[in-house]
Amino acid sequence: MIEAPGSAGLTGTAHERPAPGVPCWVSLMVHGMAATQEFYRALFRWEFRPGPQQLGPYVRAVLHGYEVAGIGQLPPDRHLPIAWTPYLGSDDVDATAEAVRSCGGTVGVGPLDAAEAGRLAIACDPTGAVFGIWQAAEHLGTGLTGVSGTPAWNELLTYDTASVATFYRTVFGYEEEPVSTADSDYRTLHIEGRPVAGIHGVGHALPRDRGPHWLTHFRVEDADTAAERVTELGGRVVSPGRSTALGRVVAVADPEGATFSVVSPLDRADS
What domains appear along the chain, each with residue ranges and CATH number? Predict the structure, then answer.
């Protein structure tokens, strides 16, 4: 990682080529592109620039000059769940896609080229949770983290961690660190000794209409204030705020129903 130049007071980091298995991008497919852009522009102060159009209209969200997320247009006849999808890094997306299949997952899109940006696939783990695979070329992924409006953490919400941990460990080479408490089923996924994502077993607390799914946390200065702003902009609070190891977290949904969390560090002096 390298220090981000530019805006006064900007203390986040810009990123080089992602290591295999590291979440390196998040993307959202929606029906109302214009309305969705307005929502996230007002919430996170994102600006937008065009991205690859292979799967339809697509824009990249830009913050402080860095690309941080993507938003695409669903075809009118595709009635899929509206959800943020994390992309996991790969040096060879074709080989990773084959590993997904051999370990009981499915590949729904690709592998295919996204112009000169890179090569991608969209897959499901054996429980049905959707994730992307990204082989970077010109587009390395999320360009900035550590400041408000950027992805802070991705975790898989599933029935229990044991049901899918072997899949992700085999496909992406993660090391695991269980979080052992009486009322928590959680494993942190590590690459090269660094925590990069989590698996949270929540049993029957999963929404009946969603099933297992990945959840992206976006950093903000104050999670409760950001959640109030979500509701003002036409979204809703999914679950009340709580204190976690990441900080203060509130689960919310945008006006089309895409769920995500806003998280503010316990010490917000550097936000």
Answer: 12-136 (3.10.180.10), 151-270 (3.10.180.10)
